[in-house]
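Sequence design from tokenized structure. All designs in this work follow the same two-part layout: the structure record, then the generated sequence. An example of the structure record is given first.
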């Protein structure tokens, strides 16, 4: 342990569209909260971030805005992202009062970000109190979190269905050979569910209700048991409250349209992969992670449509941050796969 280890932590950050997860070296996952912030526009004061802010979605007066500062895996509101991340890191520091700050931070990013977008991610961490920032592409981190030996010359097809993006990548020799990123992911599913409920039942619902429908009764295959859920919202015609019953067979129609786009993108990725690596996929299969991996029957549909064994990784929701945690805890072994754009003093 160096002298500075007594005073500074190294952190890994999965700054996702839906959730922000923070891993601290040798301590594990300490923060796992929604990427949401609430601000009072009269005073410009941040009222809440994470779970507390998410509870306010759709329930606030006009002067309180509840913002999701990341859209489609990209920072859309830099100031709010910085303040949200600063608050999360402050919460981490409160758990260990002996620490003064953060020496190194490793952040995951979607694999198709432009230089400007990558720079905005880096700057958000730097301005939140991290001295040196490294970036790693999400599929690489996901592969590490899934326990894959990424340094070997074998194809590993990773499909990470997150909140804002679906990252599809073939990983070999510690790098990405072929990749695609879709804006079709968890948030898009919520939007389609809201649209379906409005068109089919003439009922207006919010994001939280749509997400609850997706989690509780969403499936892409017919199920042995019939799932249904009571849904409340505002009647489109009368403007009054109304309750309906939604069945999983109805939501399956919505999910099937989304799944079609993901399957097409996976097939296109495989078609662009070198033949030797394509052969590996028959042996190693497809690794499915992210929140979307939990949709009932998704792995089975991919297996049938693509003809390749598909498996859901252990704890798919935290797969990326666990991969980042491996990097943080064994930094010297993995620093070759990281990108670093700027070092700010002190260089610790």
């Amino acid at each position: 342990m160096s002298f500075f280890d007594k005073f500074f932590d190294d952190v890994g950050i999965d700054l996702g569209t839906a959730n922000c997860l923070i891993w601290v070296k040798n301590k594990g996952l300490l923060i796992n909260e929604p990427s949401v912030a609430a601000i009072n526009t009269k005073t410009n004061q941040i009222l809440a971030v994470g779970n507390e802010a998410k509870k306010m979605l759709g329930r606030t007066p006009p002067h309180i805005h509840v913002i999701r500062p990341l859209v489609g895996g990209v920072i859309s509101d830099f100031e709010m992202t910085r303040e949200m991340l600063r608050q999360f890191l402050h919460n981490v520091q409160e758990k260990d009062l002996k620490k003064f700050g953060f020496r190194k931070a490793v952040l995951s990013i979607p694999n198709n970000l432009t230089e400007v977008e990558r720079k905005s991610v880096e700057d958000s961490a730097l301005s939140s109190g991290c001295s040196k920032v490294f970036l790693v592409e999400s599929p690489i981190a996901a592969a590490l979190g899934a326990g894959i030996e990424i340094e070997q010359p074998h194809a590993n097809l990773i499909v990470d269905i997150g909140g804002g993006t679906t990252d599809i990548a073939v990983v070999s020799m510690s790098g990405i050979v072929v990749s695609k990123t879709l804006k079709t992911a968890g948030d898009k599913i919520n939007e389609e569910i809201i649209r379906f409920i409005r068109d089919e039942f003439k009922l207006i619902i919010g994001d939280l209700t749509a997400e609850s429908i997706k989690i509780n009764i969403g499936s892409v295959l017919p199920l042995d048991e019939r799932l249904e859920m009571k849904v409340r919202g505002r009647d489109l015609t009368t403007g009054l409250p109304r309750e309906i019953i939604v069945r999983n067979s109805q939501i399956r129609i919505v999910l099937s349209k989304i799944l079609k786009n993901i399957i097409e993108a996976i097939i296109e990725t495989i078609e662009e992969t070198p033949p030797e690596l394509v052969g590996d996929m028959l042996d190693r299969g497809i690794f499915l992670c992210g929140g979307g991996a939990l949709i009932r029957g998704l792995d089975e549909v991919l297996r049938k449509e693509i003809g390749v064994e598909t498996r859901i990784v252990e704890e798919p929701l935290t797969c990326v941050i666990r991969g980042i945690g491996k990097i943080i805890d064994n930094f010297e072994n993995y620093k070759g796969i990281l990108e670093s754009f700027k070092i700010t003093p002190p260089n610790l």
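The chain has a mean pLDDT of 89. We note this feature because it recurs in several other targets discussed in the main text.
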